[in-house]
Amino acid sequence: MRTDTDVLIAGAGPTGLMLACELRLAGVDVVVVDRLAARTGESRAGGMHARTMEVLDQRGVLDRFLAAGEPRPIGHFSGLWLDFEQFETRHTRSLMLLQSRIERLLEEWAEELGVRVRRSSEVTGIRQDDTGVEAELGAAGATLRARYLVGCDGGRSAVRKLAGIGFPGTAATVTALLGDVELAEPPAEPLFMQRRPAGDFSVIAFEPGWYRVITTEHGRVAGTGEQVTFDELRASLLRIAGTDFGMRSPRWISRFGDAARQAERYREGRVLLAGDAAHIHFPAGGQGLNLGVQDAVNLGWKLAFVVHGHAPDTLLDSYHAERHPVAERVLHNTRAQSALSRPGPQTDALRDVLRSLIRYDDVNRHLGGMITALDIRYDMGDGHPLTGRRVPDADLETADGRTRVHALLHAARPVLLDLGGGGEPGAVAEGWTDRVDVVRARPVADHWPVWPDDEVPAPAALLVRPDGHVAWAASTGTAPDPAALRTALTTWFGPAAVKA
Questions:
Q1: How far apart are CA 475 and CA 493, in angstroms?
Q2: Quick check: is 402 in a domain?
Q3: How confident is the model at residue 225 (pLDDT cuts 50, 70, 90)?
Q4: Is residue 390 part of a domain?
Q5: What's the mean pLDDT in 375-401?
Q6: Are 147 and 130 in contact (CB under 8 A)?
Q7: Is the dihedral of CA 17, 23, 25, 30 positive or negative?
Q8: pTM passes above 0.85
């Protein structure tokens, strides 16, 4: 039976494009289809948090995004400011960068890597068997067959519905309006989540000459399919703020709610879900785009290992096991943030209490780690304190000069770091060197940070997955356990190659 591509991705948004790039870096053939004929220029998301910047840094492309955006010391929980500056990362500021520009940069990178993007191609039917998935594309009856199909096609995902995957959750209780407009009389300073008796509003300058205006009135939930108009946005701002700041020349107007839903499972046979197709939530704290990109980075290397035959198909089950709880927590915290934004004296009092608590480092770090995703630890057993966590971007001395850990991940391959100098880890990994890079180095710092506020002696060795999470580590002063290392290598990267 024919196979047109290894992986078909439905949806050319940030999640789908990031996944396509991850797969191409791993040598997987991939096609991206999107129902739209061209990009709309709309930008619901407005930036990146630290963990997303870290994963782009791990691929060597972060500079492109930094050059296009503006790092700002901005982070919040329902409009209550958080301080990220003391977090253990090279990226302590959020990057203000509109989704439209993020997508453009990701698409340029995808083109460089050889990703094929087909527009005006909507998935309208799927049939899967033991060897692949056949997708119907549009009314003309065209089909495309792939070994795997990934739905990155948004909250109304056709792929999710066609796969029969449920999407339970809570319905919207509020509708917010958003518009990118010019202002004749803009405020002197950016206004973020200004709470008033009638609701709240924000006026944020993203690019010279125009502003993003957001209003939220808690007494109304828009019906499905209702179109929002410029006059409606202006009237809403007048009711809440008492002025429209001379609003004019809208680029686009949209609405969103606080519905929170999550796919029951992220995998149905050879069909998988990522990004908004797997989870939707109130865009509080700016987590949505980041969550989707991180889904893609978790899934991409696993799918590549399965496609290449290095690892069994069951490796894909770990994608749901690791990412479903992460999104579940995001839904939980955005529900809380939505409740905290409601007007009224009771909410005012609750916000005052929470604001006083955020002044404590532990509370700031707890909320900030959750918003930025820096605190994620996947369940990989007890072991070393770093196991399951994102690897610190520590400086290293190698035979070729100084480097850092994240630079070793540019090729999107696993890395076994031998930091003790004995060579034992490399000897254990001989059967995996076709898919795992072995690097001998010396750590520059004697201690490495461990979230939330601890540190440990620099490890003697560690195994880092392509997504930057530590799969195994050995403490300094103890001999690396070869059996534990072999188990980690086999679990994540398949059995050792058979010697000829």
A1: 22
A2: yes
A3: low
A4: no
A5: 94
A6: no
A7: negative
A8: yes
